[in-house]
């Protein structure tokens, strides 16, 4: 241990406090060394100075010189110890002891009697007292050796000065010195052992205190960290709860109108059917002009219209009534408190009047109406699905007889519903039983004067030979999810027919296949088409998929994405039944289609007036400007054909060219058309 500055004249009180407070053995030895120096230096200096003073009266010059030498040695020793900054504690104590011993031994020579050596014995006594209180034995050993040497030199001095040695006195002196030295050794060992033990205990205690302090600090840090983590967890928990609420809300409520969606509405209806002890009503609501609003004003205005209509309806229904949006422009209402037809009709008429009032949305003033189909629990059904189906059936009747009306479900509808249920049940096994078959209606290329292809039309013949119209079973298949399997079967059969004609007639034909909106909403539909074409080994450009405008009602962006995915497979896309409903020419700007098929309702009008002719002519011209082929459906007479030729319509389809034919007649028809074409060219 080294001090930065060695102060032998430092305050003794400060050194004592440091010795008492330290728990390090090396520090203790360091402070003891300094304290020893502080105690020894004054004694040596005072002794040397006193001796020098009294020797001034002596006549012998050598005594004065000797005394001066002792004084200068003490002062020199003090100076050396003061400036010896780089000495270790062990070197310092050895230096201190060496000078102290030398100081005592040099004291003998000026004294010629035992009494004269008393200051030396006094100094040794002081050194012994200091030595026994030190941890190390270096000072005690030096003091013992010095005392023995002092005795020997004193005896030798007396012998040379007096001619004889006082043996008893010298022996007694040796014995006393030995006893004192042995006792000092014992006392110093006891003191040092006790001190070391205490220091060890204090050191252990201090170490444990430091460990405890560190543990406390770690505990406080852990506590703070836990508080921070707990705070973060609390925030995360709150955020998770908020997200859960949002997810639950999104899963159960319509994001446009914030009304219960189909899922939540059906859950409420199921729960009410289980618990209801009295009659209640289910009302199916359809906004009559929604598609026209969407087509003419855009989806943004259409969405605003739906949202406003929902707010109006919510404002007038009862507190216990449940209004939900089932999808598109279809809503449903549960009226738990049913007290009879008259009161219910009054409520529904009020709702009808509210929805017939004009809507002001941005710059548009929109006039609309609504149709209502009503079923009553338990008179018409006792479970949720049947109740909603009954209300839907009643609504369908409203649309048949005219919109903006209210219709209750009745017995006749019940019979029709039973029939539909029967058809639905039979439909589930019709595909695996092979009850479906395809008929093919030819399409004629006017400019080339030849058959361009066929449209595949699905038919269903029951085991009892009853033919079920596609208009009956297709909606059921779409509602039950069977349309996907049926649609894939149709595409496979069409591919096989293309391959059959190529193998037997040696001619490639194009076949158009109708695609359901349900299939188009399936994200895997394009990959299904690609796989079927690969499995059947048919070129993709020989297949045309016909879609209808109904896929555009809910999400036109999704529809465009689906069409693009299909076109990547290489198939052609046609927009079917254009002009049947509220067709919008705006669709043609965004839809990546290859062909547009004008609905037969417009073609039939070519016989009766000029308005239809202008409409059809404009559609053909605009479609050609967009680089899209035009197919006219339902061409039945020469007058219609002549007009379409005059307007450069590309392809026609209808009874004038050929009726839908069975699969086994297609090959012969292709051969006959091939022969006719050859004879004309010949």
Automatic annotation (TrEMBL):
The keyword Transcription does not apply. PROSITE patterns: EAL, GGDEF. Residues 209-236 form a coiled coil. SUPFAM superfamilies: EAL domain-like, Nucleotide cyclase. Keywords: Coiled coil, Membrane, Transmembrane, Transmembrane helix. InterPro entries: Biofilm_reg_signaling (IPR052155), EAL_dom (IPR001633), EAL_sf (IPR035919), GGDEF_dom (IPR000160), Nucleotide_cyclase (IPR029787), Rev_trsase/Diguanyl_cyclase (IPR043128). Residues 278-411 form the GGDEF domain. SMART domains: EAL, GGDEF. It holds the Pfam family EAL. Residues 420-674 form the EAL domain. CDD domains: EAL (cd01948), GGDEF (cd01949). The chain crosses the membrane at residues 63-85, 115-132, 139-160, 172-191. This is EAL domain-containing protein. It comes from Sporolactobacillus shoreae. The lineage of its organism: Bacteria, Bacillati, Bacillota, Bacilli, Bacillales.
